[in-house]
Specification:
The complex is a heterodimer of chains A (84) and B (169).
Chain A lengths: L1 E6 L1 H7 L3 E5 L7 H9 L7 H4 L4 E4 L2 E3 L10 E5 L6
Parallel strand pairs in A: 1-5
Antiparallel strand pairs in A: 1-2, 3-4, 3-5
Chain B lengths: L2 E4 L5 H7 L9 E8 L3 E3 L16 E4 L2 E6 L3 H16 L5 E6 L1 E3 L4 E9 L2 H18 L2 E7 L2 E4 L4 H8 L6
Parallel strand pairs in B: 1-6
Antiparallel strand pairs in B: 2-8, 3-4, 5-7, 5-9, 6-8, 9-10
Helix pairs in contact in B: 2-3, 3-4
The chains are: A alpha+beta (84), B alpha+beta (169).
Chain lengths: 84, 169
């Protein structure tokens, strides 16, 4: 299934990419599994595993790592927010 | 439009005036303006322990900062925070403006104003919106200092401030 994955702030810089369209294997069905799937690519993608308190969103709603990922979803990974 | 994410500066006075323009039921407008500070004091959680001699000392001057955000989600997150505030307090108007892009010390960065019949509701809702914005709206600050650029770390104290509101008002 196809999903769109977005990265922000320090994580975006570490990965050198802000977004990617991705074909996921059927067994990658949650945000946490997607994170592990990407981190397994090796450097620099292991930043996804090592970033402290990494946050995630599905379709622009903040979610936890057990949230499901479906075809067509927009999934974002980012460090804790620092606005205001 | 109660929520704006923009590069442009804002006129706090005009925004405050707009919240009571043409109505006679507004008894209070509470507002907050956040500014870019030049001095980065030691506030990082790792150093912010009582007794640390470095605590509160200036470490590196911030020459500028760039705010990144998540277009689309940012507006939704801010609107959700305003909706949550409306559910908790009897308030009339709400205005939230957050700037993005490159800002320098002294620049206004964020504005929140709330109108109500009485000050208590306006003060509380204004503070609530700022506390939730700090921990739930997808903005990230990158500071430019003489030592180079660095992403600002999230603060434990901001989580604690937002957590105060968890059990209701």
């Amino acid at each position: 299934m196809m999903v769109k994955v977005l990265f922000f702030a320090g994580l975006r810089e570490a990965l050198g990419v802000g977004s990617e369209a991705l074909a996921l294997p059927a067994e990658v069905g949650t945000v946490g599994a997607l994170r592990n799937h990407l981190a397994a690519r090796g450097e620099p993608w292991s930043a996804l595993a090592s970033t402290k308190n990494l946050r995630s969103a599905v379709n622009q709603q903040m979610v936890g790592s057990d949230a499901p990922v479906k075809a067509g979803d927009e999934v974002a990974f980012f460090p804790p927010v620092t606005g205001g | 439009m109660s929520v704006s994410v923009q590069e442009a500066d804002f006129d706090a006075g005009a925004e405050i005036a707009a919240l009571s323009a043409g109505r006679d039921d507004v008894g209070a407008v509470a507002s907050f303006v956040g500014l870019v500070r030049a001095d980065k004091t030691v506030g990082a959680d790792s150093l912010c322990v009582p007794g640390n001699p470095l605590r509160g000392q200036v470490t590196a001057a911030v020459q500028a900062m760039t705010l990144e955000h998540y277009p689309g989600m940012t507006e939704k997150a801010l609107e959700a925070i305003v909706t949550e505030a409306r559910g908790r307090w009897d308030i009339y108007g709400v205005r939230v403006i957050h700037r993005v892009g490159r800002l320098v010390p002294g620049d206004r960065i964020v504005f929140v104003a709330v109108s109500s019949a009485h000050r208590g509701e306006a003060f509380a809702a204004c503070e609530f919106i700022m506390d939730y914005l700090k921990t739930r709206a997808p903005f990230w600050k990158k500071e430019e200092t003489p030592e180079g650029g660095r992403w600002v770390d999230a603060r434990e104290s901001d989580d604690q401030a937002a957590g105060r509101w968890e059990g209701g008002k």
